[in-house]
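Field log, afternoon session.

UNIT: design team B
ACTIVITY: writing a sequence onto a fixed backbone
BACKBONE:
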């Protein structure tokens, strides 16, 4: 498996620019890179919360010097010229990443996601990294039956998805016009440690673990037969690194597991793994939410065959959920 390559990461010291470093996936990327002796320059408009920062650097306080944090709203173009730094790879994860928010505040989400991305690309024109990997989304697929990366995208269900499609088009233009090496990863439903534990619009796994730990009933929007392709964040991080370090044939890859899980089954697995006292916690059905996709399952053929990844590589849902529940409990 080509993924074995990243085990040698420690032997080289690269400089990584991670945008959205204070968010869920950004913190997981930071944690992984710091443990592997890399240098990380992190951009975000908010700081990393203290408890997660302490978790990342608690065991390796001497590595704090390998992390440079720049508090920056990426929609403000002034940062492009101001923060000139040598970087090898860019992992762009900053975005307003909620579909429900984009239904309520479409302009905010579209402007934020597209402006930040184009400014990051301008920044890269000046700083010339070897490669740019950016987060796109499975929200581009409205039909789970065909999630091949080459299908024509239409019938988008949210402005969030529109912002991701706009980014893919912009990435194509920058690749062609400026010969930049840019790769988009369409993440499916990512879960794992360092996820958001409170606040509005929590993703389904976070919301349910939180409710069950508080001995509350859990809420489900729409039918229990809806399916999702849940992918553990460790796989997302490692595949970001693999794509950075390897030659790639394509410009867009799906990043899920290729398996889909019914929400009803997800509820049962979480319930079995959360040691909670209220044994009669139930699913409460609410009306379907605008913008939500009913079913999703990644077609992983391109990534799996190109990088010789076996199906066994993906962390199974039961193991991943145990880790996520532990994170909530701590
Ligand atoms: N989590 C998922 O299941 C999932 C699925 C598909 C795609 N994605 C994409 O992956 C990326 C990371 O997702 P996440 O779950 O970590 O989201 P997150 O909301 O936890 O983190 C995003 C981070 O980006 C920062 N940010 C947003 N706008 C910014 C701006 N203008 N300037 C600077 N910082 C800004 C936020 O402050 C936040 O820390 C996003 O692009 C998201 O759209 C995530």
């Amino acid at each position: 498996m080509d993924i074995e390559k990243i085990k040698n990461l420690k032997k080289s010291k690269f400089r990584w620019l991670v945008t959205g470093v204070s968010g869920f996936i950004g913190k997981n990327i930071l944690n992984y890179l710091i443990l592997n002796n890399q240098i990380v320059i992190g951009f975000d408009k908010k700081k990393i919360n203290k408890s997660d920062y302490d978790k990342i650097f608690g065991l390796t306080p001497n590595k704090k010097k390998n992390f440079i944090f720049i508090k920056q709203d990426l929609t403000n173009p002034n940062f492009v010229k101001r923060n000139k730094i040598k970087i090898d790879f860019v992992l762009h994860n900053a975005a307003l990443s909620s579909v429900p928010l984009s239904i309520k505040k479409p302009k905010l989400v579209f402007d934020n996601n597209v402006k930040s991305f184009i400014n990051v690309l301008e920044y890269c024109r000046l700083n010339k990294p070897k490669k740019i990997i950016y987060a796109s989304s499975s929200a581009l697929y409205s039909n789970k039956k065909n999630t091949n990366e080459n299908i024509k995208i239409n019938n988008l269900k949210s402005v969030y998805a529109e912002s991701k499609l706009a980014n893919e088009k912009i990435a194509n233009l920058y690749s062609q016009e400026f010969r930049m090496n840019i790769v988009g990863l369409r993440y499916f439903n990512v879960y794992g440690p360092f996820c958001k534990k409170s606040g509005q619009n929590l993703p389904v796994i976070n919301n349910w673990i939180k409710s069950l730990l508080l001995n509350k009933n859990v809420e489900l929007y729409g039918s229990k037969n809806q399916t999702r392709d849940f992918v553990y964040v460790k796989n997302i991080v490692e595949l970001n690194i693999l794509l950075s370090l390897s030659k790639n044939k394509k410009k867009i890859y799906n990043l899920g597991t290729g398996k889909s899980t019914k929400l009803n089954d997800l509820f049962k697995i979480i319930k079995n793994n959360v040691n909670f006292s209220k044994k009669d916690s139930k699913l409460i059905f609410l009306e379907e939410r605008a913008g939500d996709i009913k079913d999703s399952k990644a077609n992983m053929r391109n990534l799996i065959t190109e990088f010789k990844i076996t199906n066994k590589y993906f962390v199974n849902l039961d193991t991943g959920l145990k880790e996520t529940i532990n994170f909530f409990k701590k």
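LOG NOTE: The mean pLDDT is 92.
NEXT ACTIVITY: expression trials, pending approval
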